[in-house]
Amino acid sequence: MKNIMSVVGTVALALWTSLAVAQETPQTALDEGRVERATELLLQQSTNDDAETSVSGLVGMAQMALSQGNLKEAARHVDEARQKTAALKKNSGWHVVVAWIAAKIDVAQGDMTKATEDIRQARACIENGAMVALSWTGAVQYLASQIYEADNAKARKAAEAAIAVYLETKQPHERAHARLRLGDLELARGKARRASLEYEAAIRDFHLAQNVEECTARAQLHIARKFLDANDLRAARARMKFAQRDMEIAGNPKELVAIYDEIQNALQTP
């Protein structure tokens, strides 16, 4: 199966393909910074007579449009992909992928009712034997933990399922994000101790991944903001110290400095 995936919402696309390694793919073009060429290759795939190849191209185009904030175009590509999945076998993994990217677009559009239905469809396809890599189950469960915001217990169960998958697939970066999500959900129900344990586990997982300092700095800022929102100023200030340390090691990226300043100003406001 040829897949395009972005587990935690990053701009980069991960293309899994049955094509020969030496053959140019949208992913190899993106890896080389050739976005226009990647778009061209995805367009070629989207018009292919083979339904699976066409769906793969449409999903890739939808994901690129989503990363660029073009939600209308992203939704159009997904609608077309959905039409073409009718020609695929019922156990095709593309039913999962299309429902997953549709749910991500729904969230970006603020339509949580539709997002709930799309992620339910993705989970149902997996439960019914869709042929996808185990990491896709993690991706679907992680997104479900975000979509089920109004049902804390259901969201926590999805986050825990995502963590379990990422432990098995040995994906520390994705696992760290799932732990952050679970920490947020624990904090939201007033379980600060449990939240702190998940946050610490997330930081440890980030240390197993690449680009450690920037990832941990971003995570510490996220945690600080959550504690600030929970009016736990002492915990928020402690996280800000860790964030400042990691930001300095990472070279003080402008985006993170701006977030740091925003939170710091909020902490100093009476």
Structure, explained:
The longest helix is centred in the C-terminal third of the chain and has 18 residues, at 212-229. Helix 5 (94-109) runs parallel beside helix 7 (134-147), helix 8 runs antiparallel to helix 9 and helix 11 packs antiparallel against helix 12. This protein has a two-stranded antiparallel sheet with strand order 1-2. Strand 1 (3-5) and strand 2 form a beta hairpin. It has 13 helices and 2 strands; from the N terminus they run ββααααααααααααα. 72% of the residues lie in helices and 2% in strands. The protein is an all-alpha fold and 270 residues long.
Q: What series of H and E elements makes up the topology?
A: EEHHHHHHHHHHHHH
Shape: globular
Task: Give the N-to-C terminal Cα separation.
Answer: 56 Å
Low-confidence stretches: 1-22
Percent of residues in helical segments?
Answer: over 70%
The radius of gyration computed from the alpha-carbon positions, rounded to a whole number of angstroms, is 19 Å
How would you characterize the largest beta sheet? Answer: 2 strands, antiparallel
Strand proportion: under 5%
Average pLDDT confidence is 88
Specify the number of helices. 13
Number of strands: 2
Strand order of the largest sheet: 1-2
Provide a short characterization of the protein structure.
With 270 residues, the chain is mainly α.
